[in-house]
Each structure stands twice: as C-alpha cells, then as structure tokens.
Structures
1.
Amino acid sequence: MSTFNVHKLRQEFPNLNIQVHGKPLVYLDNAATTFKPRCVIDAISNHYSHGTSNVHRGVHFLSEQATAAFEYSRQVVRQFLHARRVEEIIFTKGATDSLNLIAQSYGRHFLKAGDEIIISHMEHHSNIVPWQMLCQQIGCVLKVIPINDRGEIILEEYRKLLSDKTKLVSMVWVSNSLGTVNPVKSVIEAAHKRNAVVVIDAAQAVTHAPINVQELDCDFLVFSGHKVFGPTGVGVLFGKEKWLEAMPPYQGGGDMIKSVTFDKTTYNVLPYKFEAGTPAIAEVIGLRSALEFFQNIGWEGMKQHKQELLEHGTKVLLSIDGVRIVGTAQEKTSIISFVVEGIHPHDLGTLVDQEGVAIRTGHHCTQPVMEFFKIPATARASLAFYNTKEELDVLVKAINRAKDIFNA
Amino acid sequence: MREELYQQTILEHNRNPRNFKKLEGATHVAEGYNPLCGDHLWVYMKVNSSGVIEDAAFEGSGCAISKASASMMTASLKGKSTDEAKVLFEEFHQLVKGDLKPDDQPNHLGKLTVFSGIWQYPARVKCASLGWHTMHGALEKAKTVSTE
C-alpha cells in the first residue's frame, strides 16, 4: 500500500470540487453523509447504463449478471465485517431500518413484558425510538446508561443496570454528536455474562476503525452505506446466524419466500428471509465499490491523518474566544461538536455557509445529549479522511467573521 | 447572490430584544417551539374589551432570526386590533415565503420588510415565523404551537 496522500485521494471525489456561494466548498458534515468516490458513481451509472435487471429471478443474461454482482457485494461486506458466513449479512435500507428490523423481529419474538432493554444516553434517535415502540407493544422496559461531563458512558452504572431481567443491550459504537468511541468490547462481555444479546450501532464506527464482528462477539451490528462513501438507500444488518435463523421474517413479499399457497407460505433461507421485495440493487453494487475503495486506502495512514485533523481542529477552534467543545471523551473520533458564546448554532451555520463551509447545526438527532449538556443545539464539524487542516482553518476564519457580524 | 440575511436591524433586535419579558396580566398567551432547532418562546398579549392589543411581549431562547422577528413583531402589534394583527400575520407569512413583494404589493408590514429576503434561506423561514405562529395561536387560543 502506498503512503496516504490526501490531495491525490481528493481527486477521486468530484463533489469536493464544487463552489458554494462563489467560494470553494469546505465539506465538514461527514457524520451526516459522506461524498462518493468516482468508482461508486461509475458502478451505479454502469449498472443502469449496461446492467439493469432485477435479481434472484430471471434466467436471462442480465438477471444472472446482476444477481452475481449483488451477491458479490454481500461477500465484500462479509469480509469487511469479518463475519463468519455470508448468510449473516442482510441488506436493508440503512442503519435505522436494520435497528427496526431487530426490534420488531428479534424483540417481538424473544422479549416479553417486564424484560429490560439497555441503551445509552448518547444514542441517536434511531437507537431509541424503535426500542420505545417495542416497549409500548409488549411491555418491556427501557433503561438508560448515564454519561459523564466528557460525554462518556459510565461503565460502573452500566454494570449496575445489568440484571437477569436484561435481555438486550443496544449501543452506539461512535457517537454522532459527541465523537465518543464507546468501549463496546467491555459492554458486550458484561452483557453476555447475563445472557443478554448486544446490538451495536456502527453507523459512525465504520469509518473509524476496522470491524471484526467475530472478535467483538456482538450479536447484531448495523451500518449505513452512505456514511462509508457508498450510496444512500442501502444499509447492512449483521446478525449471528443462530439468531437470524430463529427470528421470524420482518416483512413479507417476494424474494423472502420459498413457496406460497393460500394455505401456507414457506419462508426462504438466510439471508433472503429478511429481504422482501426488490432490493436497492444499484446501491448494493455501489456499496461494494465504496468498501473496496475505502479499504484500499489503508487504515494506518488514514487513522493518523484523521487523528491529526482532530487535534488540529480542536486546537484551532479552542483558540477562538468563546468557543466551547461539547464532547471531550478520551477515546474520540474526528467529530467536533462546539458552541460559540453569543451566537446560536443555527445563525453560525448560516453564516459559515456563506463562506462555503458546510457544518451541521442542531441536535443531531440526539436530543437527550443536548438536554444533558443543557444546550438547545451545537455546531458540528465532522471530518473524513479527505478533509485537510487548511479546510479547518477556513472554518475558523468563517467563525471569526460570524463573531464580527454578531459582535460576539 | 442572495440578499444578506443578517441585516443591522435584525442584529440589533437580537442584541437588544424589545418587550423581552413575561407580561403580567396578559389575556392571551401561547408557547411556540421549533423542535428542529430548539427555538422555544412564549408570546403574551394584553387585549382590551374593544379588541385592541394594548401590550405585547415575548420571552424564551432561540437564534437571532427568531428572536429579532419576535421582538419586531411585539413592537408592531401594540395598538393594533386583533383583526389587524391577523392581517399582519398573513402578510408576514406571505413575505417570508417570498409570495409577497413589499415594493410592488400594498401591505402593512413597515419595518418588518427587513425579512423580505429570508425566502432565499428556506431552512431559516421557520425561525422567522415562529413568533408569529405563536402569536396567531394565542389569538386563536391554542396553547402550544410547533413549527417544523
């Protein structure tokens, strides 16, 4: 593998080269979604230009070709997650869809009234609401692991929450609003001692570190394609085969059946049992290109570059009078949430946008986190491997301009 | 090029919001909330027996746009009848959507036309209209108004 070269890598992302309000774009909203390399755009375009077909159905050339490409993507995802078997890889619409699938299929089948589900205080709404819905449906109880002022889960409190009533723990690996990297390995081990299954929301973790579901020993793990330089509309659910086998289907329809009569329907085998209807074929094929591209960059160089970005970003933001960083965990990914005294995050977002800088402002779908820190919203710069220190300096300039305008 | 959003009048009202208090003896009160950005405010009005708004005030927290808009709104409401306030609400609503061009169409907006460029910032239209929706809700006796 050649050494990490950010300028060369940037050339693969056409969307990085646009202008916004007459200024070169500085895209610092990668936790919301990432840009797509040319190979992903080409893969989708090629599919629609030369390979359009449904999958798992026809015997004609295009159908066989599309089915092979679709199933090859599953192999690539299996290898990306280091899963044992390809049957453990289910394609969904995204991380949210995957979590809802687990709640409705595993949850409704295996949990009962009085059982407890543990999540953390820093979950994305997508890892809160599906469990609340399940609790309303079957009468199980939701418990929340508290966090400290740095935005880290308090492990001792987690251990206290665990009991024989605990049947499921669902936790985010990397927080989208704080950047915190959670000690999921310890979380999983502690839960397994109580025979509780563990769901890991890896939506932000996929770009942070290599994932090995066998080593982690998580029961389920979910992520979205679009946060790892792939298309929107496709996500992944990894589940241990023994659970997926025992779980009832989530949705009914074509592709998930073996045979249908009006008396009885026999369900298809894994993974198709959970893939009712025509899937996002082009997106699944695009996801393969994204994962191959991403893995080819090389973790070491990328990790070092992102760490430098995090350190530089933190330093230059803190050099601005009145800036406070929200989320100061010891283990942190390159996501920096902050507030500027005297400027509401939404005003800041609009003002830096005028300088071509895209940051996210708001509660980031983590309202309980905002409540914990007693703020309505934050501004958030989330950095991908293609960002540069110079871009962070543009952000700082734009914030200083906003401060001038607001006399803050 | 879009019109500058943060004009001096808006910045000034953000720094020194007018009628920024709880109004004792208010006859009409409503709470407004924009869950998307966390803007949260209360609008108070004292309406006399002839249907004239004698006093108006607001309190709460939010971005500069929502604060300045609510501040200017309370200032412009004083002395108006509730019917006139509803007309003004409609006109302001049209203005921030870009459907009312204040230079070409007759209106009662006065200084409020400082928000005429906000339709070019679609994500911020709700900030400007939060106070107004809340005021309208108070007149219509709704307790909580939510804009999303």
Note: The longest strand of chain A covers residues 166-172.
2.
Amino acid sequence: MSVRVYDLAHARAGDKGNTSNISVICYDARHWDFIARELTPERVAEAFKHIAKGPVRRYPLRNLKAFNFVIENALGGGVTISLAQDIHGKSLSNVMLAIELPDPPQ
Amino acid sequence: MKPEGVVRIGAGAGTSDDRMLPALELAERGDIDYLVFECLAERTVSRENLTRSKNPELGYSPSLPVRLRMVLPTCIRNGIRIVTNMGAANPVGGARAARQEAAELGLGDVPVAVVVGDDVSSVVRHHPELRLIENGEPLESILPKMISANAYLGADVVCEALDTGAPMVLTGRVADPSLFLAPIMHKFGWSYDDMPRIAQGTAAGHLLECTASVTGGCFGWPGKKDVPDLAHNGYPFADASADGAIVIGKTPDTGGRLDVMTCTEQLIYEIHDPTAYITPDCVLDITGISLKQEASDRVRVEGARARPRTDTYKANVGYADGYIGEGEVSYGGIDAVARAKWAAEVVRERLRRQGFVYDDFRVDLIGMSSLHGEPDKRPEPYEVRLRLAGRTHDRKAAHAIGFETRAMHMHGPGGAGGACEPRVRDVLAVKSVLLPRNLVNPQILVEGSL
C-alpha cells in the first residue's frame, strides 16, 4: 500500500526568479505528522531532479496544516529567460502531488 | 452589509492581464471603499520603458484606459478611491491618460495623486559596485544593457498620496501588498510602529494581490476541489478594522469559493521563508496565522506577526538579453512521437549547418513531456505537438528556429501539420539589487487641482 501526496493534500506553485515554491496543505490536520515524516526535502529533490538542480528547503506551517517547499534552480534560469512553455512553473505542483509515499497514514 | 467601523479594500486586478469585469462587479455591488489594481509583473516595467522610449507619452500599463473607463463612473459616483500601479514606467503619463478618460466620460476634472521616485536607473548607474542578489556579481556586468531600474516602494508613500484627498492614486513600482496596506494605514492612521497591525494589513494585502486566487481561481479540481460557478467567480475584498482585525470576503452573488483552503494556498503563494516575507513595510511572519471560516465566503485572518522593515529597498534591474525564437508543428497517428523526434533532429542539424549557435536550446513534445519532462518515461499520446525553442543574441538565429520548424511541412518526416509562424521575442531579463533607503527618494505629484 502506498499513498500519493495528492490523496492527503493540495498544493500550489509560485515563482520568484529561478526559484519555485510549492505549498503542500493537508486536507486533514491529522496527516500533518505523517507528511512531515515522509515528504522530506530529500524525497522532493529526488522527484524534481530532472527539472530542478536544487537545493530543496522545507518550512513547516503547522498552524495552516501545511508545508512550504522552496526549490531552487527550478525554472530554466527564471521567468524572464526560460525557454519552457510554463515559464512560471505553475504546473509543478502536480509533480509534487504525484509523489508516492511508502506507508499509508493511520 | 459592511460591518461597522471597517474599511473595505477591494482587489480589482492582480496582474497586467487580469480579467476586467469582476472589478466592475466589485465596485458596483461590493460596498467597497477602495479599489486596488495591481498590474505589474517582474518585467512589465522594462517592457513599458521600451514603449516609452518610442513614445514619451506612453509607458503606463496598456490596460489602464480600458480598466479605468469601465470602473470610473461607478467609483466617482460612490466615492470609491482607486489605488493602482498602472503608472508602470510613466506614472505621470498614466495620470494624464486617466484624467482624459474621466473627462471623456463626463466626470469632470478628476485629480490624480502620482507617486514617483521608484525609477532608480540614474542612482544605480552611479553604483556599479552593488551586488546582484541572484548571482553575487557586480551590477556593472549588466549596466551596459540596462533598460530600467525600479525600487519596490512601500505603503508609506502611497499613504501620503492618499492624504492629498485625490480620488485616484497612480504609482509605478510599489510592492504588491503595500498597495493594499496603504489605504488601511491611511484610514486608521497606523504608523510603522504599530507592528501587529502592519503585519495584519500586509497579510491582507498578500491575500488580495492575486485577486481570484483566493476566490477559487487557480484552485479547482473536478471531483476533488470543486468550485461552484467558476465561470462567474468574483473578486475579493478585505474588511480591516482599526485594531488590525482582518476578514476576507468577496463580491456578493458571484461564483467561486472563498474558504480556508483557498486562503491557505494564496497565503503561502510565492513565499520562501514563511517567518521572513520581506516587504518594504515589514518582515512578515505567517507561521502564527490562523484562518477561520466566519460565515459563507468570509474568512477571518488572525495572528500575523512582523519585525520592522529593513533598511534597504529591493530594486529590479531590467536589461536586454538577446532573443528567444520558437517554432511548433504537429504529428498524429501511427508513430507520431517517432516522427516528431526525427523532425527535431533534422531542424537542429539544419540550424547547426547554417552556423547558428544558441545559449540555451529546448525540444518539447507537447502532450507528453513539455511541462514535466522525462519523455522516456511517458506513455505515447495519439498526437503530439513538437516545439523547439532557443535563446541567442543573434536575431536571425532566433528566427531560423521557427522558420526551419515550419519547413517540416515540406522538408521533414511525413505527415507534419499545423506549423505556426516563426516566433521571435526580445528577452527582457531581470535581476535585483538592494539599495540603502537614503538613495531612494519617493515623492508625490498631483495632476489636476484638488
């Protein structure tokens, strides 16, 4: 059994220069500790390794049932010079949502 | 009904290309006191500076006339004051255009308070030693190609512009949340010493600065995160009280949704360290914020904290950095992906043989791997659109990408269809520096008579 981030949380991606930030917001606060344990910056960096050089930092926002992932060197040099179609990386939240986590929560 | 004692700040635009009509609905039915239009993306001011260099009367946001024409009659009639950064690279020119719109609508002589001083291009020319935030290199490296340099001004100078009593305040570069904080500071006489209140007002500004992103835009997911009547989603407002209480609401009788989920997504949007979101007004900490659904489409914001503002302004420096060329063509049916990949090789080989070189080059298979990469791991779609894009300082090389891609119709693998015209665009790159506050001199001018 495994779950995807998608099953437990919603997400939105934002951009600043060549850095993407992706929120991960639990539908249910009881899943926050599970996400904290399993959705490590290392796991996220692995999922994004073909898109972003990193590093990846994770900030906890317990009050908001959320985390903020800040992924550097993620946007093809930045909005103003990127050759990507999605220069802002708005669609990158879906890479986050597709990450599989090994153990289902209690 | 608007609660007693609050000032209601409406969000009328969150980007230069934002939709128009929801702002009018908000002005007509939202019972707002202020309508704020935030219309400047990172490179917008650079682009408008180029426009201004061709015609000195232009350089304000191209959407200014149509946005203002739409809302001015309602705003003037109802005493709703307008605050906007649509002045872009020419706030005075924008003010003149705005006044002309008002006159043509029969609204008479509408004075406009103009905030100037965000243009710091002459200042930074004298400080080539300043370091670029992005890569630590000296500013000197991009100065020869500089098109614009603009500091993100804060709420204080916008507040001062509101103190003139003018029905409209027009600015160039001002930090997005500051545009919304300013009318609240003005209404209640807050100063930068009122730290918890400045924090609350800044959080409100951040929640409003992307308009529909807090009312169900950029949010919905069928069957998972449903958004009722998304086609008619409404724009948000903030009800602010003198003690710093903030409640977010939206235009009555519109679609969309405004709840803790939509507000949480927007609150974290484009934030890095959530304990240190730096604006010109404060260093905001959102980690203590709690959001509570107070009523249908009303969310209360509590617990924002902040530290005092820093002693620098961030300034964006825009500069010309060559060209991006693009071409696209489609393949469908049997072996569509194989033919698209072959076409990409042929185009690249033809570009190489003509001696064109690129700083960066990219091949996308749209419908398969253009957004998230990894073409080898994706299932093959029935049809695929090939896209090639390259960045170069040679305009001919940029154009050749689209030219050679279009030629796949006659000179590539079989069955290519629907190529687009070759596309070339100027690259307006942006980097940033921090400027000590004493180097920046924001000022207020008034166009028209108060």
Note: Residues 336-353 of chain B form the longest helix (18 residues).
